[in-house]
Amino acid sequence: MGKTIAEKIFDAHCVDNPSDDVYVLKLDVVLCHEITTPIAINDLISRGKDRIFDTTKIKAVIDHVSPAKDSDTAMQGKILREWARRHHIEDFFDIGRNGVCHALFPEKGFARPGFTIIMGDSHTCTHGAFGAFAAGVGTTDLEVGILKGVCAFQYPKTIKINITGNLAEGVYAKDVILSIISRLGVNGATNKVMEFTGPVVEKMSMASRMTLCNMAIEAGGTSGICHPDMTTVEYLWKFIQDDFSTRDDALNAYRQFTSDPDAAYDTVIDHDVSRLEPQVTFGFKPDQVKPVKEMSKIKVDQVYIGSCTNGRLEDLWVAAEVLKGEKISDSVRGIVSPATSDVYKQAMEEGILKIFSDAGFCITNPTCGACLGMSNGVLAEGEVCASTTNRNFYGRMGKGGTVHLMSPATAAASAITGHITNSKLYKG
Amino acid sequence: MRNFSGRALFLDRSDINTDEIIPAKYLTGFAKEELKPHLLEDLQMEEFNPQLDVQGSSVIISRSNFGCGSSREHAPWALEVNGIYLVIAKSFARIFRQNMFNCGMMAVELDPRTIDHVFSVFSGPGTRIVTDLTQNIFKIAGNDQTAEIPFTISSFDRALVAAGGWVEYADAKY
Questions:
Q1: In terms of residue numbers, what domain contains A201?
Q2: Is the pLDDT of residue A229 over 90?
Q3: How far is the C-alpha of B31 from the C-alpha of A180, rounded, in Å?
Q4: A241 lies within 8 A of chain B by CB
Q5: Across the interface, which of B19, B71, B156 has its CB nearest the CB of A136?
Q6: Is the CB of B93 less than 8 angstroms away from the CB of A43?
């Protein structure tokens, strides 16, 4: 019997099998940010265990509230910063060099095929786009990851989602993943890995694959995962060129982390996207999804373009194409947050930020802030936000506020009209 | 080991997420005790008043996918500082469930029919649960009714509860 990617990664990393289907895995990377890590650090100190299993495998960033908004968030940054210095963690990214963790760490080449990755953040599933097993965990799992370099998981069951057909122009990875979550439900993939495969995924950029994998958790999935291919190798090449003589060598090495044709899946789903229209959420759960055209009466107070889901350069390009030469509605506050410092710089050099600015958008620094209602774009009670983020829970972006999730194209178009609107890039 | 018995709080809805259990704006503190007044603050449900209903409760009983969303361990901590060490539900989000056992607390799944039965017979403010961890039985009493409900937890989860959580377990073993 063949194996899935996730099973192969588990088999290659298992250090203990304490009961039934529980595997304790050796970790290749432990990612840290300033919201969930400082409490782990303080707890390690209080236990007299302020140690790190391997400083080269710890990567840390201040991203959730950056710049700090008050004394508490300043202290969270300070604890993480001082810990990184004390332990000589080289890969620590502070303001000016930082970015939203799930955009920044892949950009730095830290996600690789076959890796095991944890972080105290539910959207860690994003890194599975590189053919890694990447899972969000709580602070205690993170703490043990930092101290011992291990984490326990159930042996993975995998849902194979074979994405077929041809995406219409103006329809994006965000629309695809929203349609998949709508189909599976918010707990349709709980305790399972979501393996995204098929011709549509093969054609997708790494940024689009990250958008897919990012929202696996919104269906309850432990990790998203994509097969590593030449697109993966090209993305990683500048980080791995000393390890392999050619790109083909790298691809051959990474092919060990692809699922066997006779692998046993929990479920196999064929998801044809040929007729898929741009999608948007309604209500307060990410599986409540409708075509944009059915939601066009909904007025929006704020439009937010950014986050670990859709704040990469590719996302800003699309939004800028919609916004070029246009002005956003007087009734809308537009906020764009390039996901990383490099995305910000490139967007500036390519003139994308000018398009946003000319259209009337506020350009903020890279941060997670608005997505979870912490800073840089919190909603007031009764307000509505068209957002490229990943969660539309009640009050998520501010108590009493409503969030509609959508692609950057739809968000940009909605900013212009002041209500939820299909972009001109969609010709359907 | 903790006490997993006491008054039950019934939350009759699926998909209660960790933003509802503890909103993100409270994630900037350092003391778990600071979370205490904010447990379930943003949960909008008919006839639910977080200020009144949380106090004195020791067990939460809910429907499916309890604890979905963010990985924040502040959700179990907010329960912990309110003296709630046990959640019983039809199903849990993976990270929340793991966080509960990692803290030496329990998140126990019961089959759908049993959960439906518990809600229909025992739902109300006076219901109490006694957890017998040697026999794996919840003894439930309320609304002039009693029942003994068997449950299962894995040997690994039981070891985490006995050890007081994953840090102690892992540090001793790995």
A1: 7-271
A2: yes
A3: 39
A4: no
A5: B71
A6: no
pLDDT of A226 strictly over 80: yes
What are the backbone angles phi and psi of residue A368, rounded to the nearest 5°?
-80, -15
Which residues is B129 bridged to in the sheet? Answer: B6, B140
List the single residue in A with minimal CA-CA distance to B155. A19
Residue of chain A nearest B103, judged by CA positions: A140
Q: Give the Å distances, CA to CA, from A3 to A129, A192, A257.
A: 18, 15, 10
| Binary contact (B98, A121; C-beta < 8 A) | no
Q: Do A72 and B28 touch (CB under 8 A)?
A: yes
Q: Is the CA virtual torsion B98, A40, A122, A374 positive or negative?
A: positive
Based on DSSP, count helices (H) and strands (E) in chain B, helices before strands. Answer: 7, 7
Say if residue A391 is in the same domain as residue A261: no
Q: Which residue of A has its CA nearest to B72?
A: A138
How far does CA B20 lie from the centroid of its chain?
14
* Pairs of CB atoms within 8 A across A/B: 138
The SS3 of residue B138 is strand
- Res. A19 pLDDT band, cuts 50 70 90: confident
C-alpha closest to that of A101 among A279, A310, A340: A340
- Position A252 pLDDT exceeds 80: yes
Q: pLDDT digits over B124-133, tens only?
A: 999 999 999 9
Take residue A290 and report the two structure tokens written for it: 């409708």
What are A139-148's pLDDT values in tens digits?
999 999 999 9
The shortest C-alpha distance from B22 to chain A (Å) reads 11
Yes or no, beta carbons of B69 and A122 under 8 Å apart: yes
Q: Across chain B, what does the average pLDDT equal? A: 96
Chain B CB within 8 Å of residue A222 CB = yes
Number of structural domains in chain A: 2
Nearest to A121 among B25, B68, B71 (CB): B71
Q: What is the CATH number of the domain that holds A119?
A: 3.30.499.10
Question: Which residue out of A144, A223, A281 would a mutagenesis test of the B interface target, given it has the greatest number of B Cβ atoms within 10 Å?
Answer: A144
Q: For B57-120, what is the HEC assignment?
A: EEEEEECCCECECCCCCHHHHHHHCCCCCEEEECCECHHHHHHHHHCCCEEEECCHHHHHHHHH
Same domain for A251 and A362, yes or no, is no
**Residues of B with Cβ-Cβ distance to A35 under 8 angstroms:** 27-28, 72
pLDDT in tens, A379-388: 999 999 999 9
Number of continuous H segments (helices) and E segments (strands) in chain A:
15, 19
A:325-384 residues touching chain B, CB 8 A cutoff:
372-374
Q: Do B42 and A222 touch (CB under 8 A)?
A: no
What's the complex ipTM? 0.95
The encoded tokens of residue B168 equal 């102690």
Burial class (CB in 10 A: 0-12, 13-18, 19+), A242: exposed
Q: Determine the residue of chain A that is closest to B160 in CA distance.
A: A18
Assign A1 a pLDDT band (cuts: 50, 70, 90): confident
> What is the spatial distance between Cα A418 and Cα A301, in angstroms, rounded to a whole number?
7
Domains and CATH numbers, chain B: 6-173 (3.20.19.10)
The residue from A238, A271, A304 where one domain ends is A271
Residue A423 resides in a domain: no
**A121 interfacial to chain B (CB closer than 8 Å):** yes
Tell whether A262 and A299 lie within a shared domain. no
| Chain B residue numbers touching A54 (CB-CB < 8 A) | none
